[in-house]
Specification:
With about 550 residues, the protein is α+β, with helices and mostly antiparallel strands. The chain contains 15 helices and 25 strands. The longest helix has 15 residues. It is elongated and about 85 Å long. It starts with 8 loop residues before the first helix and ends in a 5-residue tail after the last strand.
Length: about 550
């Protein structure tokens, strides 16, 4: 659309895209569809360019008034306003674009000049597109490369203006693309090569996904990054705690995508942390940041976070894609959103334990009772993939059920004016102190006790459909032991679709903070899919973190 302030119509008028030796097109912004179309030159425009004196070179010194009087410019505007009759040779939509650049090749064998400028052998506009396949409903690469007629460009400022406009229309947020003076941002990619249980050579594993998808797509998006492959449990946590910073000389002497431990920067020097694996590697990352007590809040406010699903369950990745206009669950969709650069804030919870006085940061869920048993005791079946928890749910919940007695106390939403915001300061009492009078307490035998921060606990478990990305609320799902095995089985079978929410016997309590005091022996505290110390535990929502996400309500 010529009147769109982000589309440089005058520059687009002057740029000719070579299709064949004697066939040219121009790029148009379609105001009705938002797409950018490649349209052949009209016969009159082609004739005007051919017959005009020195028509191959445009005089950039002409005033804007002269530009608007240019017949070619007027013809371009006319075609833009009446785009229904355009013959479209090629097309792409900015929503599908993660990057755009200009590549130049100098003609070393013919250094002749025209109008004082050097001749070029090739000038090419590269557009990196990942449109959705309508049949598969998944994104697939469909990049565009347009050869620019270098004779119509004096210094390629028109082409650069057009590329900048494409990036702006695409809504790219990384590297501050609207600020030409901004320094490039650098991401840290942390991958678990053994995520998913199939080893580092697996085609679904983090190493393969990084080499074939993450690395090339970040390069296409013009995002610089370092890579760290973890080599032992807790490595990601240790990396977050590391405060050593590399010098400028070290930066110049290292491979930008092959960091070693001795060369790693303090994470505060990065713009984003990208986790590749399951929820476990992100759990390590947040515990490492939490251990930096002096600058934890500063890092959480500065850093952006991304998750690329390469693990077994991938609950957070699925939840973010669900919140992002129910985007398709694939690693490429997650990487696509990271490259786009849009972020939304995700609630973080702080957990306190009575036995050790240790604290944790949580982003996903807490479970105790049947769900914790299924998650943790089924580790012996990890080789089966996500189905391992289903098998254990039948074994532990239906065939050989247990009763889990506990005292559950919570702070209802009605006691706070804003009904759920992480900015609300909730002061928890010490674990050895009685709770305030405005808390509600339930003591009973339970089968299920499941606290949700996200919609999905796993890619195939739609735990909490009502959960929002930053609603500032815990959603506690409770099933008491008095519920029959048949009803419990019905709930478990409907977890994949979220239909369990409507089942009789399921209670949902929304609260701002809670405390759980287990009264049965041999129970587990399962936080974000990881086993932590047992015993009494309490939690509150305390902060948020910026996560790469698409369009979130």
């Amino acid at each position: 659309m010529a009147n769109n302030p982000t589309w440089p119509a005058a520059a687009a008028t002057r740029i000719r895209i070579k299709i064949t030796n004697d066939s040219y097109c121009r790029l148009f912004y379609n105001h009705s569809t938002g797409s950018i179309n490649l349209v052949p030159l009209t016969a009159d425009d082609a004739s005007a360019i051919t017959t005009a004196p020195h028509a191959e070179i445009y005089d950039h010194s002409q005033t804007s008034d002269n530009v608007e009087q240019d017949p070619l410019y007027q013809s371009y505007l006319s075609q833009s306003k009446d785009d229904s009759n355009q013959i479209i040779v090629d097309s792409f939509h900015p929503d599908d674009v993660i990057g755009a650049n200009l590549s130049l090749e100098y003609n070393l064998h013919n250094p002749n000049t025209f109008h004082g400028m050097q001749s070029y052998a090739s000038a090419q506009i590269n557009i990196y597109c990942y449109p959705k396949n309508n049949r598969k409903k998944q994104r697939e690469p469909n990049h565009k490369s347009y050869i620019v007629d270098s004779k119509c460009c004096e210094d390629f400022s028109d082409v650069r203006a057009l590329i900048q406009s494409i990036r702006t229309l695409s809504g790219l947020q990384n590297n501050n693309t609207n600020n030409n003076n901004a320094l490039p941002q650098r991401f840290l990619v942390i991958l678990n090569p053994y995520s998913g249980g199939n080893g580092p050579k697996s085609k679904s594993g983090a190493t393969f996904v990084y080499e074939t998808m993450v690395k090339p797509m970040l390069e296409q998006a013009d995002v610089e990054h370092d890579k760290l492959a973890t080599n032992h449990g807790g490595h990601a946590k240790e990396r977050m705690e590391l405060r050593k910073s590399t010098s400028d000389d070290d930066d110049n002497n290292r491979d930008s995508n092959d960091c070693t431990d001795s060369e790693l920067k303090d994470i505060s020097e990065y713009a984003a942390i990208i986790a590749m694996g399951g929820d476990g590697i992100l759990f390590e990352i947040f515990q490492g940041i939490h251990a930096r007590s002096t600058d934890e809040a500063q890092i959480l406010s500065k850093l952006k976070f991304g998750i690329v699903p390469c693990g077994t369950c991938n609950g957070l990745a699925k939840s973010i894609l669900h919140w992002s206009d129910n985007a398709e669950y694939t690693p490429m969709e997650s990487v696509f959103q990271i490259c786009k650069g849009h972020t939304s804030r995700l609630d973080l919870a702080s957990y306190q334990l009575a036995k050790t006085e240790k604290t944790y940061t949580s982003f996903l869920s807490f479970s105790w009772g049947l769900i914790a048993d299924c998650d943790l005791e089924s580790e012996c079946l990890r080789w089966l993939g996500a189905i391992r928890t289903d098998i254990w749910a039948v074994y532990r919940g239906i065939l050989f059920p247990k009763k889990y007695r506990a005292r559950f106390s919570y702070l209802p939403l009605s006691n706070k004016t804003n009904n759920g915001s992480a900015s609300t300061k909730i002061d928890l009492p010490k674990l050895n102190e009685p709770l305030p009078k405005d808390w509600v307490t339930i003591e009973d035998d339970f089968s299920v006790f499941w606290v949700c921060n996200t919609t999905h606990a796993s890619y195939n478990v739609f735990t909490c459909p009502m959960s929002k990305m930053n609603d500032g609320v815990f959603h506690v799902l409770i099933v008491r032991s008095s519920v029959s095995r048949l009803r419990l089985l019905q709930m478990l079978l409907k977890l994949e679709t979220g239909g369990h929410i409507e089942c009789e016997g399921l209670e949902i309590i929304s609260c701002l903070a809670y405390r759980l005091e287990p009264l049965s022996d041999n129970t587990y505290n399962d936080l974000d899919g990881e086993l932590i110390e047992g015993g009494t535990i309490q939690a509150r929502l305390f902060n948020t973190a910026q996560f790469f996400a698409g369009k979130v309500d």
